[in-house]
Amino acid sequence: MAFNRVAIVGLGLIGSSIARAARENMPAVTLAGYDADPGVRARAGELGLVEVAGTAAGALRDADLVILCVPVGAMEAAAADIAPHLSPSVIVSDVGSSKASVAAALREQLPHARIVPAHPVAGTENSGPDAGFATLFRGRWCILTPDEGAAPEDVEAVSQFWAELGAKVEVMDAKHHDLVLAVTSHLPHLIAYTIVGTASDLEGVTESEVIKYSAGGFRDFTRIAASNPTMWRDIFLANKEAVLEMLQRFHEDLTMLQRAIRWDDGDTLFELFTRTRAIRRGIVEQGQDVARPDFGRSEA
Amino acid sequence: MAFNRVAIVGLGLIGSSIARAARENMPAVTLAGYDADPGVRARAGELGLVEVAGTAAGALRDADLVILCVPVGAMEAAAADIAPHLSPSVIVSDVGSSKASVAAALREQLPHARIVPAHPVAGTENSGPDAGFATLFRGRWCILTPDEGAAPEDVEAVSQFWAELGAKVEVMDAKHHDLVLAVTSHLPHLIAYTIVGTASDLEGVTESEVIKYSAGGFRDFTRIAASNPTMWRDIFLANKEAVLEMLQRFHEDLTMLQRAIRWDDGDTLFELFTRTRAIRRGIVEQGQDVARPDFGRSEA
Questions:
Q1: Could you read off the pLDDT of B28-82 as tens digits, one per residue?
Q2: Do A217 and B224 touch (CB under 8 A)?
Q3: Chain B: nearest CA to A102, how far in angstroms?
Q4: For A215, which DSSP code?
Q5: Sign of dihedral through CA atoms A15, A16, A21, A24?
Q6: Which one of A55, A178, B57, B112 is least enclosed by Cβ atoms within 10 Å?
Q7: In the sheet that B168-171 helps form, which strands lie side by side, from edge to edge?
Q8: What DSSP designation does B262 have?
């Protein structure tokens, strides 16, 4: 392991999961941490997740890797906060869900730093230091998006770190990352938030009816629509172009289905509904979801 | 229990789950069954789910309750099939996800029958007689939509039957049912099918990338987009008006969010994303979904 002391800035779901996973898988590594929220710092201390520092500078002392685990809209401020205390030997990484804009913000604030941006494609609908757990990254992908100037050995070191946490690592261009995640993550969240909002604003159907009969499909959307509002607001603004592009595609496809329903075109519906089953099969086969029917809820 | 012999017409996920749940909870009731597909009949026989008959008429013999468990587009044909063999003492029910059009079809084919339509709001993404299980209806709602002419004792008998299967029973007007389910079930399925289709048709992102990085949110949509294509084609055509109405609302709300993203209006996004968390809480509190983060996948 290339790192002796890792500083985690931001101790929410992802930051605290990194701490837990590192403790479990890399016991020799010392973990320091900081969060801008005093309540979160106190809680992280109670949980014994990391050596909690009262400032970002304190967490950074003697660290050889610092990971920014804050909402993407707060990345630039977090980078500015650590800038004066950064030694040239430290590698700077982050866990932002949108990469091109975050990379630009980090480069702006830390022009000479050794930056290796990362995005672990993992999470739950819960937030805060209590929500994290050590196995969050196990079997999930972590995408690194170093720019052309990054040293190969820095990329390798961060890659090894994530592999030790249990993730599978992939290196990708930041712009391509943003396009891929717009469709696999950002668009689904936007749509889930929208439909949950739509359902709560109807005059003919009450909110309590929506809740009561949600097992018909709606409840699946509510899980991701319960995700951290700050984090997601930032992601949509940070990855605006790719999200709007994907939204346009989705609009077109939905309009086509709307038309098929209006004109009783059952064949168009049937053809699509058959095709979509194959994607589900692929996701289960590749271990990115559980095969248990109903997500295993029926066993609860 | 008002029934001695129950005939199940259609032995897929729902029909076979009724058989399993009835066997477990009402051992004194005799179960007969029929399916138009010879392969399904053979499999139901191997599984010992019901006394399998070679014709609907055979399954109906001496039954005092017959439940049509076929896609809503096949209800009229199934009703026509049983019409000549129906004794006046039999209660006819169904499990269709759309009620007004199914009620009209049943009434058309069975003008003098004692009809009590039902819709158990439960299911999984899997289909066929092997997919059913005895606890599918436990704690879920079953909505009965009898018309004004239905005898109260018939409604009571069907209600008691579903309660014995583990469901909570609610009586509702068929048109209101169709509106409620359009938002809690039909619209979510339509949107899930659409986004999975959109994701598989992009030129900049490959299908294998979509599968690989699906844990970012997309995979939640693929579960319901793997549901039975015939069943869902029929539902959208049968509940066209309510689905188109809900789709229009959804379109408007999505357009509002699209505009907020384009104009960097973070407050609008944040306000909605905060509101939607409360709905999730309600669903979990009322036992319509599990509280385990990530649907409990992380425990797998």
A1: 999 999 999 999 999 999 999 999 999 999 999 999 999 999 999 999 999 999 9
A2: yes
A3: 16
A4: G
A5: positive
A6: B112
A7: B118-120, B141-144, B168-171
A8: H
Is the C-alpha dihedral spanning A9, A12, A16, A17 positive or negative? negative
Q: Domains of chain A by range and CATH?
A: 5-173 (3.40.50.720), 176-288 (1.10.3660.10)
Which residue has 């994607």 as its token pair?
A279
Helix axes B13-25, B38-47, angle to 10 degrees: 20
pLDDT in tens, A141-180: 999 999 999 999 999 999 999 999 999 999 999 999 999 9
Question: What are the respective helix, strand and coil percentages of chain A, to the nearest 5?
Answer: 55, 10, 35
Residue B238, token pair as written in the block: 């049968």
Paired tokens of B268: 């609008």
Distance from C-alpha of B88 to C-alpha of B91, rounded to nearest angstrom? 8
Q: How far from the centroid of its chain's Cα atoms is residue A138's Cα?
A: 14
Q: How many residues does chain B have?
A: 300
Are residues B298 and A253, on separate chains, in Cβ contact within 8 Å? no
- The number of helix segments (H) and strand segments (E) in chain A equals 13, 9
What is the pTM (predicted TM-score) of this model? 0.91
In the predicted model, is pLDDT for residue A65 greater than 90? yes
**What integer is the mean pLDDT of A207-228?**
92
**What does the pLDDT read at residue B154?**
98
Q: Which of B124, B233, B270 sits opposite A230 (nearest CB)?
A: B270
Instruction: Quote the CA–CA distance of B89 and B61 in Å, as a whole number.
Output: 12
Q: Which of A23, A34, A273, A279 is nearest to A164 (CA)?
A: A23
**pLDDT digit string, tens, across residues B130-148:** 999 999 999 999 999 999 9
**B176, B252, B268, B269, best to mutate vs chain A, most A CBs in 10 Å:** B269
Residue in this structure with the two tokens 């104009």, named with its chain if needed: B263
- Nearest Cα neighbor of A92 from A167, A9, A182 is A9
Would you say B84 and B106 are in contact if contact means Cβ atoms under 8 Å apart? Answer: no
Across A200-209, b (16+ Cβ under 10 Å) vs e yields: bebeebeeeb
**Number of Cβ within a 10 Å radius of residue A287:** 13
Are the beta carbons of B233 and A273 separated by less than 8 Å? yes
User: Coil, strand, or helix at residue B126?
Assistant: coil
Sort out which chain B residues have CB atoms less than 8 A from A282's CB and list them: 207-208, 211
Sign of the dihedral defined by the CA atoms of residues A236, A239, A240, A244, in that order: negative
Read off the pLDDT of each residue in A177-195 and give the average, rounded to a whole number.
Answer: 96
Q: How do beta strands A141-144 and A118-120 pair? A: antiparallel
Across the interface, whether the CB atoms of B140 and A243 are under 8 A apart is answered: no
Go through chain A and tell me how many residues it has.
Answer: 300
pLDDT of residue A300: 42
CA-closest candidate to residue A195, choices B300, B224, B163: B224
Positive or negative, the Cα torsion across A16, A20, A21, A26? positive
Closest chain A residue to B291, measured at CA: A223
